[in-house]
Amino acid sequence: MPVPILKQGDTLIVSVQAALTDRDLIDLKNELAEKVGQYRSKGVVIDVSLLDVMDSFATRTLRGIAQTTKLRGANTVIVGIQPDVAFAMVQLGLALEGVDTALDLDEGMELLNRRFGKGELGGG
Amino acid sequence: MGDEPRESSRLKLTDREIERRLRFVDLRSEDLEHIASIRQLVADRAENYATAFFDYLSKIEEAAPLFGNRTVLEQARAGKREHLNGMLSGKYDRAYVEQRIKLATLYGRVGLETRVFLGAFHHMLHVIGLDIIRALGREGLERATECVMSLEKVGFFDLGLMIDVLIDERERVIGLQQAAIRELSTPALQVRDRLLILPIIGVLDSQRAKQLTDNLLHAIRANRAKVVVMDITGVAAVDSKVANHLIQTVAAAKLMGAAVIVTGLSAEVAQSLVALGVDLSKLNTVGDLQGGLEEADRILGYSLQRI
C-alpha cells in the first residue's frame, strides 16, 4: 500500500496509515528522497501514530530516511510513536539515534519551525 | 479490605491432593478401624468437646474477636460439632475437606490467630483422648492409646488444612495491599503545561519499575508532556537492573518526544551506580527537584519572575 506524502509549505508530511511491508518502506524512502529535492522541502514529518509494531527493519529504514533527507537538505522528525511501541523499541535496542522525535504532528511541525527559525538549515 | 466477604477460601483441593495429604499423616486402614470403634463414644459427647474447645478459647484474650460476634460464634460452634462428627465418620473426602476449609475461612475472617487456634484444638484433642483412655482403659491401655493416636492423625490432617487456609487468607490480604500500593505508587503529576513530575518513593522492584514506565509513557501522551522530571529522592537503593530500566524509560520517553530529567540521586545511590558501572551518559541528571524544575523551565522556555 503506497503511503501518501503531503506537501505543506516547506514541509512534507507522511502519514502512515497501516502496517508497512518492507517493500512499502523502501518505496517510501525512495519517494521521499526524490520529493525532498523536487519540492525543495526543508522538513519531513513522518507520523507513525497508527503503527502498533515497529520492527528493526522499519527502525533502520526510518533512520535511513532521516539521513538521506538530511543530505538532501531536509530535517526529518518522527512523530506519534505510541507508548508501548516506544518501550518495546528500547527493550529491543532499536534506538533512533540522531533522529528527531516528537509527540505528535503539531509538536513535530513546531520542532521543524524552530529549526528553520534558528537558521540551522540556512534560512527559511 | 474492599472486596465482598467470601464464603470460601481460594484453596481448592483435588481428590488426589486430599489423598496425598492423608498419606502425609500416615492414615491407614487400621486407623479407620480404631476410629470406628470409638465413634459412638465421641459422638455421644460431641457437644461437650465443642464446649471444651470454645471454653478454652474464651479464656484467651487473643481469641476475643471470635466472641465479639454472635452469629459468627454460632456458626463456629455448629461447624465444630459438624467437625467432630466428620472426624469420627472415617470418611475424609472432598465434602469433609470443604467443611474444614469453610470453618477455617471463618476463623481467618474474624482474625483468629493460628497459635491460639492450635492451643484450643490441642486442648480439645487432649480432652477427647483422656475420655477414650478412661473408657477403654479396662480393655487395655495399648488399645486406647492406639485409638487416640489414630484420631490424632486425623487431627493433624485437619490442622494442615486449617493452617493452609489461614496462610492463604493472609497472603490474599498481602496481595490486596500490594495492589493498593501499586495503584498509589506512581502518579505522574502535571506541574504546568507540558511539564510532568514523577515522584518515586519506596523500593523499585522490576514489576513496579515496569508499571512506572507504562504509567509515565501513557501520561506523556495524555498530558502532551515535553519534559518530565523524575524525582527519585525517595528511592533508597537502585540496583543495576532498576537503573537500566530507568535508562530504557528515558530512551522510550525520548522516542515520544519528551525529555526526562532525573533528580534526587542520593550520595549512596550515585556512588552505587558508579560502582556498578551503569552507563548513565544518556541520563540528564540534576541534583534536586528544584534544580530539575528550573532546568525543565529552561527547556520549555519559561522564566520564573518575582512580582
How would you describe the overall organization of this protein?
- With 124 residues, chain A is an alpha/beta fold.
- Chain A has one domain (5-114): STAS domain (Transcription Regulator spoIIAA, 2-Layer Sandwich), CATH 3.30.750.
- Chain A has helices at residues 22-38, 56-71, 83-91, 105-117; strands spanning 5-8, 11-15, 43-47, 75-79, 100-102.
- In chain A, strands 1-2-3-4-5 form a five-stranded mixed beta sheet.
- In chain A, strand 3, helix 2 (56-71) and strand 4 form a beta-alpha-beta unit.
- Chain A is globular and about 35 Å long.
- In chain A, 39% of the residues are buried.
- Chain B has 307 residues and is α/β, with parallel strands linked by helices.
- In chain B, strands 1-2-3-4-5 form a five-stranded mixed beta sheet, with helices on both faces.
- In chain B, helix 10 links the parallel strand 3 (227-234) and strand 4 (259-263).
- In chain B, helix 2 crosses helix 5 (70-89) and helix 6 (94-110) crosses helix 8.
- The two termini of chain B are 49 Å apart.
- Residues 1-7 of chain B have low confidence and may be disordered.
- The chains are: A alpha/beta (124), B alpha/beta (307).
- Chains A and B meet through helix 3 and helix 4 of A and helix 9 and helix 10 of B.
Task: Record the SSE blueprint.
The complex is a heterodimer of chains A (about 120) and B (about 300).
Chain A: E1 5-8, E2 11-15, H1 22-38, E3 43-47, H2 56-71, E4 75-79, H3 83-91, E5 100-102, H4 105-117
Parallel strand pairs in A: 2-3, 3-4, 4-5
Antiparallel strand pairs in A: 1-2
Helix pairs in contact in A: 1-2
Chain B: H1 15-24, H2 29-44, H3 46-58, H4 64-68, H5 70-89, H6 94-110, H7 114-136, H8 141-185, E1 189-192, E2 195-201, H9 206-223, E3 227-234, H10 240-255, E4 259-263, H11 267-276, E5 284-286, H12 289-300
Parallel strand pairs in B: 2-3, 3-4, 4-5
Antiparallel strand pairs in B: 1-2
